[in-house]
Design a protein that fits this description.
Strand order of the largest sheet: 1-2-4-3-5-6-7-8
Order of helices and strands: EEHEHEHEHEHHHEHEH
Number of strands: 8
Helix content: 25-40%
Shape: globular
Structural class: alpha/beta
Number of domains: 1
Length: 261
C-alpha cells in the first residue's frame, strides 16, 4: 500500500495545500486471497471526506482498498462543509469536486469517469459527499453519506447573534451564506437534487446511513423522506450506534462493498 502526502498549488484556495492518498499497488506475493479476482479490473477511486474539526487521513477503511482495488484520495477542507465561501481563497467545493479530481486524473491517471469514481464522508463530510456528488454528477457515480450533518434547515432559521453549541452565527453565515435564502440556493443539497431531476440528468447512486442514537438521525430521516417524495432512488439504512468511529467503521465497509464489490 503506497501512502502519499502530496502538496500542490490550489487555484481554488489561492495557496499551496496538501492531500493524502492511498494506492494499493503492492501485495505480499505468498498470501493467497481475493486480490487476483478484484485486481483483474481497473483501479477505482474513492474521494473520502473528513468531518468537522477533522483532517485528511484521520479515518481510513483499513484493508478495504487492497480487497476491492481502489485508491483513496483524502483532502483537508478545514470546517468548510465542502462549500464555496464568499471570501477569496475559500472555494472548497471547487477544490474537491473539480480541481482535485482533475489533478488525480492528470497525475495518477485515476478517476477518469463517474463509473470508477465515488465520494464518501462522515458527518460534515457526509454532507460534503452528498453536496459534491450532486453538484458534479458527471464526475462521481456513487455517493456514500455516513451520519451526515444535514443542518441546512437549522441554519436557515438562525438570526444574527444566535448559534449553537458547535459554532456561532458568524461561522454559519460565512460557510452557508445568508441563512434567509439558504434553502433556495445550491448550497442546499435538496436544490441540487431537484435541478438534476427537472433536467432529466443522471443522479449519482446514493447510500445514506445513520445510527439510531445519533444526534443527527432526524436530519438524515428528513432527507430520506425528501428523496422518497421526489422519487429519487437511494439506499437508506439505520443501525444501532451513535456519532462515532464504531458506527462509521462498520458502515464504511458496507458502503465500499456496495460501491466496488
Amino acid at each position: 500500500m503506497a501512502r502519499l502526502q502530496i502538496e500542490y498549488f490550489s487555484n481554488a484556495l489561492h495557496r499551496a495545500t496538501t492531500f493524502e492518498m492511498l494506492i494499493p499497488n503492492d501485495f505480499p506475493a505468498n498470501i493467497p486471497w481475493e486480490k487476483d479476482v478484484f485486481h483483474s479490473r481497473p483501479m477505482s477511486t474513492l474521494f473520502l471526506l473528513h468531518g468537522y474539526t477533522g483532517k485528511a487521513g484521520n479515518w481510513v477503511p483499513d484493508g478495504l482498498p487492497e480487497k476491492y482495488n481502489f485508491a483513496i484520495v483524502m483532502p483537508t477542507a478545514e470546517n468548510s462543509f465542502y462549500l464555496n465561501g464568499e471570501a477569496t481563497g475559500t472555494a472548497y467545493q471547487t477544490m474537491v469536486g473539480e480541481e482535485l479530481v482533475d489533478y488525480v486524473r492528470k497525475t495518477f491517471h485515476l478517476a477518469n469517469g463517474p463509473e470508477d469514481t465515488c465520494i464518501a464522508g462522515l458527518s460534515m463530510g457526509g454532507f460534503g459527499a452528498l453536496h459534491t456528488g450532486l453538484a458534479y454528477p458527471d464526475r462521481f457515480g456513487k455517493i456514500g453519506a455516513l451520519s451526515s450533518a444535514l443542518i441546512v434547515h437549522e441554519v436557515a432559521k438562525m438570526k444574527p447573534g444566535a448559534g449553537n453549541e458547535v459554532a456561532n452565527y458568524a461561522y454559519y453565515r460565512s460557510v452557508f451564506g445568508d441563512p434567509e435564502t439558504l434553502l433556495e440556493r445550491d448550497e442546499n443539497p435538496e436544490v441540487l437534487a431537484r435541478k438534476l431531476k427537472a433536467a432529466g440528468a443522471k443522479i449519482p447512486e446514493i447510500y445514506m446511513c445513520c445510527g439510531t442514537e445519533d444526534f443527527l438521525i432526524e436530519n438524515n430521516r428528513e432527507l430520506h423522506r425528501f428523496f422518497e417524495s421526489e422519487g429519487i432512488t437511494h439506499e437508506y439504512h439505520e443501525g444501532k450506534g451513535v456519532h462515532d468511529m464504531v458506527f462509521w467503521h462498520e458502515y464504511i465497509a458496507k458502503i465500499v462493498e456496495w460501491m466496488f464489490g
